[in-house]
Task: structure prediction
Amino acid sequence: METAQVDELTTLIEDFNTLFIRLPMVQRLGFSALSVVHTLSRRGPMRLTALTATEQLTQPGITSLVQRLEEDGLVRRRPDPTDGRAVLVTLTDAGADIVRSRHQSRVDRLAELIAGLDAGEQDAIARAMPALARIISLGAS
Result:
């Protein structure tokens, strides 16, 4: 792929992400709070130090954010069974409900937008999905 195409793809992804982040109309939370609950929903319980790395926040920042999420009933802190000095952060049922409802809201809204495309455009998106999934996989390693 040529540099100009990668540049265009990057701009399209940035613009799509801006749209996609704003699709859900349920449970408005700040970006960092949503990122934490989504990370916990995908990866399971995590130590604060691991969340600091994945969320790109400082230790005091993640500690404060987790405290607010805990006060809101979205996460719970508990001792790490493998290391009594460490704490694991887990998603509560209320936190999981937010993740599910936001996902469903995005599915519903994105389905409406995709319905506005012609059949060829819809097929092009479907054909690109395996390549996009592979890019995600490569970026995660």
Q: What stands out?
A: The helical segments are 3-21, 31-43, 48-55, 59-71, 93-115, 119-140. Residues 93-115 form the longest helix (23 residues). The mean pLDDT is 90.
